[in-house]
Design a protein that fits this description.
Strand 15 and strand 16 form a beta hairpin. This protein is of the alpha+beta class. Helices cover 34% and strands 24% of the residues.
Length: 579
């Protein structure tokens, strides 16, 4: 009997421990690394015609990198984003998915707003701003160009004013930028964009001089300021890339310890947020040197992802080209996979599928298929739950049949407790003999919960990291399946005009889940030990409180799963005359 109690307590503790650990250990904010050395990293500041020899520029002519830090004593606030956008002539970007522009001064792509994505579920809320120009707070941009293999070559840089063939870039009409260095080199930059979020930047250099010239193409993404991240262990945000087929995910803190440099043929590199991505895709057949780095300028953190291509020799009268693709947009899985099909290695792994990708990916694709079939991700979750129940039907049937046997044994178990209550060893021996005689398993009731745990975690990951779930509505008050139920019982679900603290946000769906868990528990055989019985009585309340902070889609899954389990268990109980 003591062994039975110990096993039951272990099973309960493991189930609760996994959920608690998942919420408070794996999802707690990342621990900050050791404080970085006090030396200020001063990156080279490049002016037109003085590009560093054979190196990718770092913080090239970046006003935001040298501007006073907001809030510092005597610091002036940087200009607004709108003011920075007005500070130089621009070419508009207009696509079905992007509003924005790029600057003719420097030729940087530095103004991207995402048309179909808003800051909140309110369709009138502002568009998501992804990229911002230098000179504004939290500048974030992409830059392309050439560096010389020897000094003394005048090249376009951050302060170069380009001439444009058009004032608007659309998927149907690329824009051609031109600039002549007056020393025999003519530079042409053709910027094209597709209907989604991928730019194609083609750099061309023509040499009309009398001497050969050697140049190396580069591309960089630069971000000023350490962005606010979700701070969850189960989600990577920061530098990311695929190098020679391997996914690399250094953190922002890692770069403060020194640059991360890797060579690759094929692949990509960039910076990821939870839902958004910027990524450079160099020529997939050419070896390049990739790098993630950090610089500190006047107390402002600057993060950079860049690559340096192979040297190009340009003879007199000759020309060379280099093409780079640049992604700036939402991490839509189907879209990323379409770029994979077009030759970008493992591009869909910009979505952090986690260690259990073999579960999370299939679950996402099933939900996406059901969404297209039913028009609602919530209905897709309900249908997915039915399929999972069918897959585990034989196993669950055996479990519920064993529990039914346990329930029919309760009178005999009570008799044994009355007869051998003072002799724990004899009571345990008789109990084990009774279980063996009828083929009952006292731990059978834990099996349905245990087999749900991997699916629970995988579904949680899908709801948490995929943008398709962001702001996906269900019915009624659930307007975002990836967010917790917004209602709470402590203001009578909105009837009382009071917003309780977050610790008291226990919504309608978590309560429904708790009720279904309680009903399912009533069908199970009651533990003969009073302590065990009290523990089981508390479980629905514990799970209700814990799951109230989880994504509503996950709580709906659990409640629906409980209802299906109740129906299945009731039928089996009736069949075994245990109900």
């Amino acid at each position: 009997m003591e062994q039975q109690q110990r096993n039951l307590f272990i099973a309960i503790a493991v189930s609760i421990g996994i959920l608690l650990g998942f919420q408070f250990l794996f999802e707690k904010p990342r621990l900050e690394r050791q404080q970085q050395a006090q030396q200020t990293q001063q990156a080279q500041q490049t002016q037109p015609g003085t590009a560093p020899q054979g190196e990718v520029p770092t913080t090239t002519g970046t006003p935001s990198a040298t501007a006073p830090v907001p809030g510092a004593p005597g610091a002036a606030m940087p200009p607004s984003r709108e003011a920075a956008l007005r500070s130089a002539p621009r070419v508009k970007i207009k696509t079905p998915n992007i509003d924005g522009s790029f600057a003719l001064l420097g030729g940087r792509i530095d103004d991207i707003r995402l048309v179909r994505y808003r800051e909140s579920v309110d369709p009138k809320s502002p568009e998501i701003v992804l990229l911002s120009p230098t000179g504004s707070v939290d500048a974030y941009f992409a830059e392309f160009g050439w560096v010389p293999s020897r000094p003394g070559i005048r090249l376009p840089g951050a302060d170069t004013l380009w001439s444009a063939s058009s004032d608007t870039l659309t998927p149907e009409a690329p824009v051609v930028l031109t600039w002549d260095n007056g020393e025999g080199l003519k530079f042409t930059r053709t910027i094209a964009v597709d209907n989604n979020f991928m730019f194609t930047v083609t750099e061309r250099v023509e040499n009309s001089g009398t001497e050969p010239v050697a140049l190396l193409p580069y591309g960089l993404i630069q971000r000023t300021g350490t962005p606010h991240t979700s701070g969850y262990y189960i989600l990577h945000e920061g530098p990311v890339g695929v190098f020679d087929g391997k996914l690399k995910e250094p953190g922002y803190g890692d770069l403060k310890d020194g640059p991360v440099a890797l060579t690759t043929t094929g692949g990509w590199l960039g910076i990821t947020d939870k839902y958004w991505l910027t990524a450079l895709v160099p020529d997939q057949k050419e070896p390049v040197k990739g790098r993630f780095s950090h610089a500190l300028r006047d107390r402002a953190d600057i993060y950079q992802a860049d690559f340096l291509g192979a040297e190009r020799q340009i003879p007199p009268g000759g020309s060379v080209e280099s093409t780079t693709r640049f992604f700036a947009g939402a991490k839509e899985v189907k879209l990323l996979e379409s770029y994979e099909d077009a030759g970008v290695d493992r591009f869909a792994d910009a979505v952090d599928w986690g260690w259990f990708f073999f579960l999370t990916k299939p679950i996402f694709h099933l939900l996406d298929f059901f969404h297209r079939l039913l028009g609602n991700f919530g209905l897709g979750i309900l249908l997915l739950t039915v399929i999972i129940k069918l897959l585990f039907f034989p196993l669950a049937n055996k479990s519920y049949a064993a529990m039914a046997k346990m329930k029919t044994l309760q009178p005999q178990m009570m008799e044994l407790r009355e007869k051998f209550g003072d002799d724990k060893a004899r009571l345990n021996q008789e109990m084990m003999a009774l279980y063996k005689r009828v083929g009952a398993n006292p731990l059978a009731g834990c099996l349905p919960i245990v087999i749900q745990i991997p699916v629970f975690f995988a579904l949680y990951k899908v709801l948490f990291v995929t943008i398709e779930m962001r702001h996906a509505p269900f019915f009624g008050w659930i307007r975002d399946l990836s967010a917790p139920d917004p209602t709470t019982i402590f203001n009578l679900f909105g009837l009382i005009p009071w917003d309780p603290p977050s610790i008291l946000h226990i919504g309608a769906w978590p309560i429904i889940m708790g009720v279904t868990m309680y009903l399912q528990q009533k069908l199970n055989p009651q533990p003969p030990d009073p302590i065990q019985a009290k523990m089981f009585m508390l479980l629905p309340f514990i799970f209700t409180y814990m799951l109230a902070q989880f994504a509503a889609g996950l709580v709906i899954y659990w409640a629906w799963n409980n209802l299906l389990s109740i129906a299945q268990q009731w039928v089996i109980m009736r069949k075994n005359k245990a109900a």
